[in-house]
Design a protein that fits this description.
Elements (H helix, E strand, L loop, with lengths): L1 H27 L14 E2 L9 E4 L4 E6 L14 E6 L8 E2 L1 E3 L9 E8 L6 E7 L6 E8 L4 E8 L7 E8 L2 E6 L6 H9 L5 E6 L4 E8 L2 E6 L5 E6 L4 E7 L5 E8 L3 E7 L6 E6 L2 H5 L9 E7 L7 E8 L7 E7 L2 E6 L4 E5 L2
Parallel strand pairs: 6-10
Antiparallel strand pairs: 1-25, 2-3, 3-4, 4-5, 7-8, 8-9, 9-10, 11-12, 12-13, 13-14, 15-16, 16-17, 17-18, 19-20, 20-21, 21-22, 23-24, 24-25
The structure holds 2-acetamido-2-deoxy-beta-D-glucopyranose (2 copies).
The site of one 2-acetamido-2-deoxy-beta-D-glucopyranose has 5 residues, from loops.
Length: about 350
């Protein structure tokens, strides 16, 4: 009798694990055929080899790029972390490394999600960068010094609620929303969170006065961005293949508006300053990213979402590649008819859109 019970329990557990593995596979992969496509005139940007995980572009055409991410489960970057600047107004724009001053420790700089904040009072530009100096995360706030092509380090933000930050969107001089992609910090805990589909990813609002969770229940909360009228916040759930739209309130709380389901694994979001369209660099196969094999590299995909608030948003696939050109795209931004696509640990691509 006892044996039967044990066999039954083991059987149920095995079935449960099997079902979870299938679900996890579905979360990591998209099952449709990949049709390769690219806009006109795509070129690899010279000088970016160690990733271009997140990109933000100012309306003026200055693009900020984070490079050299070090993240649990991924292969180590080929270079130390750095922030790059590219002026997209130039005919043949070249990335330059921004000098970092203010006594900041560059040896443990592993930049991840970034956000730009223009202060209306002093007209200065602040650059918020998620950093992984050790196992937990920090958000580094810099002031951009355009003439010197430098970033002056102002502040390191650390908080127990900012334990596994992936991306940020700045909403004030020292105020931002951040996504935590996991609750656990160690590899086993993170794997279990994904395997069991616990949905422990969340969004936190930080200000020096108050830090609070404002949204929860994400399987892997990833890119976060704001609509171009600053009224809505968009949050990607990588493993749920969705973008959640929230209305932002004066007290920083977020109320859910809608969830847009997509057939791809979005990473970071970029909002077109002119049109309000949302652009995303997506993963076709996240498994290949975490279990990297140069023979079968992860592919890349770019999508554009128009009118996300309407009843029928238009989703267009703009770029798709099996990894032969671009591996593991994580972000896509547009400026003036040109598209720039960044990757977790690989190169970056520049294309003409029309
Ligand atoms: C924040 O503001 C919203 C909208 O005004 C309101 O519904 C919500 O209850 C407020 N939350 C808190 C915690 O005060
Ligand atoms: C990717 O596609 C190209 C053709 O477009 C093909 O030559 C190459 O073998 C493919 N690579 C992989 C890893 O499937």
């Amino acid at each position: 009798m006892r044996k039967l019970l044990v066999v039954t329990v083991v059987g149920i557990l095995a079935a449960l694990v099997g079902e979870r593995v299938v679900r996890l596979r579905q979360a990591f992969l998209i099952s449709r055929e990949i049709e390769q496509m690219e806009p006109a005139n795509c070129q690899i940007i010279k000088g970016i080899e160690g990733g271009s995980e997140d990109i933000e572009i100012l309306p003026s055409g200055l693009a900020f790029i984070s490079s050299g991410l070090k993240y649990p489960g991924l292969v180590s970057p080929v270079k130390l972390g750095e922030m790059l600047l590219m002026d997209l107004n130039e005919e043949d724009p070249k990335p330059v490394t921004l000098r970092i001053s203010g006594g900041f420790d560059l040896d443990s700089f592993h930049p991840h999600g970034i956000s730009l904040y223009k202060d209306a009072k002093d007209d200065a530009l602040y650059v918020f960068v998620v950093n992984h100096p050790k196992i937990s995360t920090t958000v580094e706030i810099f002031k951009f010094q355009e003439d010197e092509k430098a970033l002056l380090h102002l502040k390191t933000v650390e908080h127990e609620l900012l334990h596994s930050v992936n991306d940020v969107v700045a909403v004030g001089l020292d105020s931002f929303y951040a996504t935590n992609d996991h609750y656990c910090l160690n590899d086993i805990g993170r794997a279990l969170e994904s395997l069991l589909g616990l949905g422990w990813g969340n969004v936190v609002h930080y200000s020096p006065k108050e830090v609070k969770e404002v949204a929860a229940g994400f399987h892997f909360a990833n890119g976060i961005s704001m609509s171009h009228d600053n009224k809505y916040v968009f949050v990607v759930d990588l493993f749920a293949h969705s973008i959640s739209v929230f209305e932002k309130h004066a007290n920083w709380s977020l109320s859910p508006v809608k969830v847009l389901q997509l057939d791809t694994l979005m990473d970071n979001l970029c909002v077109d300053h002119k049109t309000g369209d949302i652009w995303s660099g997506c993963h076709i196969d996240a498994w290949k990213l975490f279990y990297f094999d140069p023979e079968y590299p992860p592919g890349s995909e770019v999508i554009r979402v128009q009118n996300i608030l309407s009843e029928n948003p238009i989703v267009t696939r703009v770029y798709s590649n099996n990894g032969s050109v671009l591996q593991g795209s994580s972000v896509a931004c547009v400026h003036d008819g040109r598209l720039i696509v960044g990757t977790v640990l690989h190169k970056a691509l520049y294309c003409d859109l029309d």
